[in-house]
């Protein structure tokens, strides 16, 4: 674990800096595809980001989740209405307004003229008069208000909104303009990539100097596996649907293809949140088609492996961090309405500890029938203390465990559901110790090892191993990590045994989990993140 002192920095990063920060930055929320007729969507003020859900199995604060907008408001962010900030005009606005209020003179002139996408002076003045803390502002980018269904236009409008937010912060007294953090649902993530990979390069600028981090929720980065619905939809949505095509996204000659992201933006600053609960998605036809239109390595219709609309594999970008949430693509209890999305995103933006969990070695001690097609799957779910929601979820129901393996040491090289990197990385996530005592960090890890016989000849669907452990980290100059099999450590006066202490390794610590059917050594890495990240 690298423990480094925080650097002395300006409150905001300079415009020329392409590094990230975990300090608070303005947040932009971007919704997904609006369907054929978007008039009803235009009337939805917060674009669905205020929708929440009730968890009957929870109690206390975890019982009701009110949606991303309300959750951020309660966490100290100030909502700003971005509805009419950037306006779209059928003809270019050529003449600079001569009657602008004096307070708007500080804005660049090209904000208000010179093209079809211009800033509305009245909205700009209104926002100046409110004088919010620019680092704690929350914006909803309502791109369908532009009345022109082209992703290129959406990308340009997003860059203009970001430029306006940064200029507003400077006028309000920021030493340097802040970057923005973005949470984008479904097609909203494609719009962000359009800005990163097309609009900013067209302007001769790097998106990394303006965008801090991005979280995508169920975005079809690699397309949607089934394309039969494209023939049923109206022509005005053709450009949006074209970006959903796997062929479009796989075309490396297309600058906005997913494989070209790293040319324009640091991949480690884009987190893909992948939904896994296809069963709760309201559009059952999409779930059926996802089973019929399997992607490479899924063994045909054996698995669904989607959030109901987007395949788990297609919601990811190789090289970018990922996490799994057991929610469906959209609806009342989905990725965009989930408490998990808020917890994961807020830690990715502002967390002060980066964690990695790896499999070092393993041994399956039962199962693997001599006949049939016996396969082993390995997974883990991770919860931080005081938040009863998974930051990372794998399970048999989610169909996202690593495997299938056919060797007892889980060393198969040809996998359908592969590790997060070549060194058997299970999970990479961000944690926040700002509200815990003396850097006392606790994670609950629930491990699952299961056996499946796809031919149904042997004892299929056996549970080989299923057990919970608690990882406790006492951070500081000399950090110590402990592994506990129960919550006894939480009792006052508890003194850990020598066997509870994890072994220090080259890049972190190792610990062992075991039972009658399975044993494994895992490695955990923790790194305290500076205010300014590399």
Task: Give a brief description.
By secondary structure, the protein is an alpha/beta fold. The chain is built from nine helices and 21 strands. The N terminus is likely disordered.
Structural class: alpha/beta
Percentage beta strand: 25-35%
Task: State the helicity in percent bands.
Answer: 10-25%
Radius of gyration: 24 Å
Shape: globular
Distance between the termini: 16 Å
Strand order of the largest sheet: 4-7-1-8-9-10-11
What is the number of independent domains?
Answer: 2
Low-confidence residue ranges: 1-16
User: What is the helix tally?
Assistant: 9
Let me know the largest β-sheet. Answer: 7 strands, parallel
User: Got a strand count?
Assistant: 21
Secondary-structure element sequence? EHEEHEEEHEHEHEHHEHEHEEEEEEEEEE
Average of pLDDT: 85
Describe the structure.
- With 534 residues, the chain is α/β, with parallel strands linked by helices.
- It is 17% helix and 26% strand.
- The strands form 5 sheets. Strands 4-7-1-8-9-10-11 form a 7-stranded parallel sheet, sandwiched between helices.
- Helix 4 packs across helix 5.
- It is globular and about 80 Å long.
- The model is unreliable at 1-16 (pLDDT under 50).
């Amino acid at each position: 674990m690298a423990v480094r002192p925080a650097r002395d920095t300006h409150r905001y990063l300079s415009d020329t800096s392409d590094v990230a920060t975990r300090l608070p930055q303005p947040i932009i929320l971007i919704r997904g595809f609006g369907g054929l007729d978007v008039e009803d969507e235009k009337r939805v003020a917060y674009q669905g980001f205020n929708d929440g859900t009730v968890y009957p199995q929870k109690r206390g604060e975890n019982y009701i989740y009110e949606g991303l907008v309300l959750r951020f408001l309660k966490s100290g962010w100030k909502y700003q209405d971005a509805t009419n900030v950037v306006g779209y005009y059928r003809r270019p606005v050529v003449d600079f307004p001569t009657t602008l209020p004096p307070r708007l003179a500080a804005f660049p002139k090209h904000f208000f003229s010179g093209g079809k996408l211009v800033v509305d002076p009245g909205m700009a003045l209104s926002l100046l008069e409110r004088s919010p803390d620019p680092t704690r502002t929350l914006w909803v980018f309502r791109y369908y208000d532009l009345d022109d269904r082209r992703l290129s236009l959406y990308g340009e409008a997003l860059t203009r909104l970001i430029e306006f937010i940064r200029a507003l912060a400077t006028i309000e007294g920021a030493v340097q303009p802040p970057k923005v953090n973005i949470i984008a649902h479904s097609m909203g993530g494609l719009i962000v990539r359009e800005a990163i990979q097309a609009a900013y390069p067209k302007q001769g600028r790097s998106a990394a100097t303006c965008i801090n981090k991005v979280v995508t929720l169920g975005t079809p980065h690699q397309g949607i596996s089934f394309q039969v619905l494209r023939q049923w939809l109206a022509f005005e949505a053709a450009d949006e649907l074209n970006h959903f095509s796997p062929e479009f996204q796989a075309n490396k000659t297309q600058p906005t293809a997913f494989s070209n992201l790293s040319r324009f933006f640091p991949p480690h600053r884009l987190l893909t949140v992948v939904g896994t609960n296809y069963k709760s998605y309201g559009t059952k036809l999409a779930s059926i088609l996802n089973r019929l239109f399997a992607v490479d390595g899924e063994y045909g219709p054996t698995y669904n492996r989607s959030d109901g609309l987007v395949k788990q594999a297609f919601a990811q970008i190789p090289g970018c961090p990922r996490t799994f949430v057991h929610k469906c693509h959209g609806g009342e209890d989905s990725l965009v309405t989930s408490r998990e999305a808020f917890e994961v995103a807020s830690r990715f933006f502002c967390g002060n500890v980066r964690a990695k969990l790896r499999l070092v070695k393993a041994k399956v001690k039962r199962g693997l029938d001599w006949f049939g097609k016996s396969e082993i799957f390995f997974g883990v779910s991770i919860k931080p203390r005081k938040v009863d929601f998974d930051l990372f979820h794998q399970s048999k129901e989610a169909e996202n465990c690593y495997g299938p393996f056919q060797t007892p040491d889980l060393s198969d090289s040809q996998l359908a559901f592969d590790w997060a990197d070549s060194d058997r990385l299970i999970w990479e996530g961000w944690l926040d110790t700002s509200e815990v005592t003396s850097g006392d960090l606790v994670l609950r890890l629930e491990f699952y090892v299961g056996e499946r016989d796809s031919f149904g000849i042997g004892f299929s669907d056996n549970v080989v191993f299923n057990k919970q452990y608690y990882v406790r980290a006492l951070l500081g100059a000399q950090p110590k990590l402990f592994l506990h099999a129960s919550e006894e450590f939480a009792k006052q006066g508890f003194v850990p045994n020598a066997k509870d202490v994890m072994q220090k390794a080259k890049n972190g610590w190792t610990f062992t989990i075991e039972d009658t059917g399975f044993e494994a050594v895992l490695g955990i890495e923790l790194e305290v993140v500076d205010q300014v990240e590399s």
